[in-house]
Amino acid sequence: MQNRALIIGASGIAGSSLASRLLSSGWQVHGLSRGRTPVLPQVKAHSADLTSADSVRAALEGLDVTHVFFTAWARQATERENIRVNGAMVSNVLDALSAGPSKLAHAALVTGLKHYLGPFEAYATGAVPETPFREEQGRQKVENFYYEQEDRMFAAAARDGFTWSVHRPHTIIGFAVGNAMNMGTTLAVYATLCKQTGMPFVFPGSSMQWNGLTDMTSADQLARHLEWAATAESARNQDFNIVNGDLFRWKWMWSRIADYFGVIAVPFDGEVRPLEARMHEAGAQWQKIAAQYGLAEADIGKLASWWHTDADLGRPMEVLTDMSKSRQAGFLDYRSTPDAFFSLFDRLKAERLIPSA
């Protein structure tokens, strides 16, 4: 019987890559979102306010799927609101599917390394576990909407008899427009601004991130991991870290990104220079660049997420993950992080989101 997937956030950075992966594997794919961004043509789109149980129930009425993948979240002003809103989103979907014809086999939840670091408003203020992060380290003693989402999914799985998996990527490299957590596109826009205006390509982050080891997650690597866990016996009812499998230092990666765009990587002098504080004129500058090169998106806010890139590159501690649990369970895929960046940049050019020259 054909697998039938429902992807929550099918137009996002993780969801769109997952949709492409599942379609290529012969799955039938449905997408549920607010409907603001188009999904792949082969995806059957459903629109709803994910925070409204009635809206979700109406959108999913009569839908029969075997798997559901949660790849979206809604950022709120406080972690308490994140918990309330994002926890409800999981329950709203699973309750609606439970009430309909679906007999779920599996639910998958994408969270991230803030499982170990804590939420944005209490970021790394507690006793951060020793790196590399391992799944066995468990939860931090802080409020975290990831934990609420997990608990809602666990409760529904116990009620309805489906299996589950939790996936914790590091920063995701992938293609998406209008995504709030998109370092790859943010760096591409930043490098383009530097090239076009003569602004120096300065690393915005901390000494620890510049000098220390780190890793990242390509969206296609995450998609492979999600499909694997949804179908592998060894992955049932497990939480997993998921990264590319290579390590790097930003002082090495920064010059390679600079070379791709034909800008000079300014040597890091130890001072943190956040992008958000330096990009006040970037919106107007990008409009001029978009007009000059005939770009498809003149609103820089739909491409760059300065705050999120600042948060990732400004971390004062090492952030590194262990992939042993996935490998022992049979997931052996690998993705080169530089290649993931360059593939994204090539696509951004092809889609006329950054200049091709």
From TrEMBL:
InterPro entries given in the database record: NAD(P)-bd_dom_sf (IPR036291), PRISE-like_Rossmann-fold (IPR055222)
CDD domains cross-referenced by the UniProt entry = 5beta-POR_like_SDR_a
Q: Which residues form the PRISE-like Rossmann-fold domain?
A: 62-355
Q: Which Gene3D superfamilies match?
A: NAD(P)-binding Rossmann-like Domain (3.40.50.720)
**What is the name of this protein?**
PRISE-like Rossmann-fold domain-containing protein
Q: Which organism is it from?
A: Pararobbsia alpina
